Amino acid sequence: MCLDGKKQKEEEKSDEGVNQMIGEIERMSRHHLEVKQDVETQCDFIHALGAEIQAIQVGVMDDVGVFVKWMDDELSFLVDERAVLKHFPTFPEKKVDMLREAASEYQAIALLEKGTAEWAEPPGMGCVDVCERIAQQFEAVDNKLHILMRDRDGLIQRFKPHHIPTSWLTDDSDGLVCKLKKATFNLAARYLGTIIAEVNQLPALEVENLATESATGIDPNREFLLLAEFISLLVVSMLSAQLFLNSYDHTPH
Questions:
Q1: Can you give the pLDDT at residue 218?
Q2: Which class for 61: exposed (0-12), middle (13-18), buried (19 or more C-beta within 10 A)?
Q3: Alpha-helix runs per DSSP H in the chain
Q4: pLDDT of residue 237
Q5: Cβ distance 121 to 130 under 8 Å?
Q6: pLDDT the model gives residue 11
Q7: Closest Cα partner for 226 from 190, 202, 251?
Q8: What is the mean pLDDT of each run of 10 residues along the chain (253 residues)?
Q9: Planar angle of CA 98, 54, 57, nearest 5 degrees
Q10: Which positions ≥6 away from 245 have C-beta within 8 Å?
Q11: How far is C-alpha 11 from the chain's CA centre?
Q12: d(CA 116, CA 68)
């Protein structure tokens, strides 16, 4: 009886596997037919779109973003973009990829620059929490710029053959990267102002007593220690912001 039950379960498992295989084959067959249909019916559309993409030469990155959105909307009509376009060897897929990459990188940096330049203290937030938020913004900028500076030469070399603007990647005074660096430096100055304002609110005697307690080994007030910690972090952040402005002053060719 046990053997019969085991055999039945094995047969059911086998049938389930066969059914799954059949289902996958049917799904792939439907997908193949849909791709074939697009290849046959969207031929003129794809050739026209490819010619427009190949000819596009935009002057500013904001226009690249607009064009990429329009291009993606057009390509979304295809059942499977990659599967369909591989049947059109003259379609400029490489340029499509470069346009998308450039638009994505530019948007990420633009959002970071806007968030840094327009950074505002949340109402009612204490000094320690405000400084923590500013420090997080510094870290986000530092990480992004580190990656960008590492990859910048390669990005410029890939974008230029496709007539994609690259000045925003350089340290030109009007470039987006330069604006981000300057916004970071300005935010560092606000960081310093926030801490100075908080320290100035402490009575002189309280500050002196806290300093004395620290020197004698007694744990000082937590807020005072945190302020000291943030002042130390501020120095590092200010130096980092200045480093952004001075160290990356070469323009790749």
A1: 43
A2: buried
A3: 2-41, 43-55, 61-75, 81-85, 93-117, 127-159, 176-200, 204-215, 222-247
A4: 55
A5: yes
A6: 54
A7: 202
A8: 54 58 65 89 95 92 94 94 94 96 94 88 76 83 87 93 90 79 81 72 54 48 51 54 49 43
A9: 75
A10: 181, 182, 185
A11: 51
A12: 26
- Tens of pLDDT, residue by residue over 114-139, are 998 888 877 777 777 877 888 888 88
Which residues have C-beta within 8 Å of that of residue 168, sequence separation ≥ 6? 61, 106, 109, 175, 176, 177
Q: Map residue 236 onto helix, strand or coil.
A: helix
Q: Which residue has the tokens 């000082």?
A: 220
229-252 in b/e form (b: 16+ CB < 10 A) is ebeebbeebbebbeebeeebeeee
| Tokens linked to 60 | 């500013």
Q: Please answer whether residues 78 and 38 qualify as being in contact, where contact means their C-beta atoms are separated by less than 8 angstroms.
A: yes
Residue with tokens 């295809």: 78
If DSSP codes are grouped into helix, strand and coil, which group holds residue 177? helix
Q: Which amino acid is at 85?
A: L
Q: What pLDDT is stored for residue 90 in this prediction?
A: 94
